[in-house]
């Protein structure tokens, strides 16, 4: 077996070759029956507009960003998608509304099906040589080409749903028009190049976004200059921290590079191959730039526009609960070992959730990325409550069966 090799430029070339010119062949989209959902208002801390979880994350991981630069969702929603998978999302009351996260999920499922229906892509993956596979193994988190593209599709949807929290800062009150204005302004590319992955994923899961939007006269959306500068400073601080942790691990602690990445990636969530192994003079950006991302964005936005126009959603009546995004109300009581983590969306998430549970002496049988299902053995109701609370404290939503 060829030894994994870290090479971001070569990994980008491999992904572009695999994608080809027609990554998502046309497959008819059948609108599902009306989608029922439940919404819950998020509880901001007294004297502020952020929840406790949002504020703590900002203070620990987002300096020099300030609370005034952050927009929070007003509601969290839960629903089951057309594939039968439980989901969660966020929206701002009075703006584009709950249809956006639900339509984003259906768009993601539609593009996944189109990818799986692409025989050319499957053939190119099957023909991939050992050297190219070694580069993907050494450079990417998810490694398998199909998983990489699927997660790229999901990341495009995540960016769209998250930026929809800012629709009130724009002239757009239609979800499809908003998505197209995002694409015209290069905001999907901005996420891939100016954000760092952990910030984007973690703030998305918490229903917050640390940027401001401005519209050009034709309605195209872009970040304010202040937002660009804040993102730059946060990214540089994260890169500096990653290099500092790696230098200490391979120097003072005497670990090999692979051992250092494994220890701190799993235990402290401070470093990853994205930054820890990067040349200090280089600033990372998405491996899909500049070749694959445009085709993903074009397909995503146009599919989303079609989906949102035909999607029917219905809010289920229920007792309104004011809650944090990761409350314990729906997971107390027994030792049932099956639950879902709907905002788990990459191999890193899988590793984090497994590591958190095993750190609580929980036996983990399954952490499945596609179904978002986790199967584990809990010793007692108290062990279950504490373990699921630890998963929530890591930034994930827990939905128990």
Properties at a glance:
HMA_dom_sf, 12% strand, 47% helix, Heavy-metal-associated_CS, 401 residues, 15 helices, metal-binding, four-stranded mixed β-sheet, Alpha-Beta Plaits, globular, HMA_dom
What does this protein look like?
This protein is of the alpha+beta class and 401 residues long. The chain has 2 domains: 8-50 and 68-221 and 280-314, no CATH class; 338-400, Alpha-Beta Plaits (2-Layer Sandwich). Helices cover 47% and strands 12% of the residues. It has 15 helices and 12 strands. The strands form 4 sheets. A 4-stranded mixed β-sheet has the order 4-3-1-8, with helices on one face. It has a 4-stranded antiparallel β-sheet with strand order 10-11-9-12, with helices on one face. The protein has a two-stranded antiparallel sheet with strand order 2-5. The protein is globular. The relative contact order is 0.15. Mean pLDDT is 89; it is low at 325-332. It comes from Micromonospora maritima. This is Heavy-metal-associated domain-containing protein. Keywords: Metal-binding. InterPro entries: Heavy-metal-associated_CS (IPR017969), HMA_dom (IPR006121), HMA_dom_sf (IPR036163).
